[in-house]
Write a structure and sequence with these properties.
Order of helices and strands: EHEEHEHEEE
Oligomer: single chain
Shape: globular
Number of domains: 1
Largest sheet: 4 strands, mixed
CATH topology: 2,3-Dihydroxybiphenyl 1,2-Dioxygenase, domain 1
Number of helices: 3
Helix content: 10-25%
Structural class: alpha/beta
Distance between the termini: 19 Å
CATH superfamily: 2,3-Dihydroxybiphenyl 1,2-Dioxygenase, domain 1
CATH architecture: Roll
CATH class: Alpha Beta
Length: 131
């Protein structure tokens, strides 16, 4: 799950000091190693659930022609073994998706795409590897 914020440091203090959450160690994150990201975030772990707070990044709207910006919208994410198989399944169901694999400022993320549920909520589908 991802929660957008306009002030990452303020949000980190809230989740750590008020809710007592601990930062998720980098070796537990399901991110691919890569160059530093221009998207600022912090990761937390709640049992088997990964939760992160992201600094909003308006330039992602340009990449998607204004359709999706996961740094502005709260969203849930699901992991798949092969994103190409997931794309074919969505194509067969005529469900539109936005491929964010090459999104600017997001080099650490594995292959990912976003869809909308019937109520318009943002849903991430990602092929991730444990680091």
């Amino acid at each position: 799950m991802a929660v957008p914020t306009t002030d990452l440091e303020r949000s980190k203090r809230f989740y750590e000091e008020v809710l007592g959450m601990e930062i998720m160690p980098a070796e537990h994150r399901r991110l691919r190693p890569g160059p530093p990201s221009r998207i600022r975030y912090e990761w937390y772990e709640l049992g088997n659930v990964e939760f992160h707070v992201m600094q909003q990044n308006p330039e992602l709207l340009d990449f998607t022609s204004g359709r999706v910006n996961p740094t502005v919208e709260t969203h849930i994410a699901f992991q798949v073994a092969d994103i190409e198989i997931a794309k074919r399944a969505l194509d067969a169901l005529t469900i539109p998706y936005i491929d964010m694999t090459q999104a600017p400022g997001n080099p650490n993320m594995a292959k990912q795409m976003f869809i909308r549920d019937p109520d318009g909520n943002l849903v991430e589908i990602a092929e991730r590897t444990a680091s």
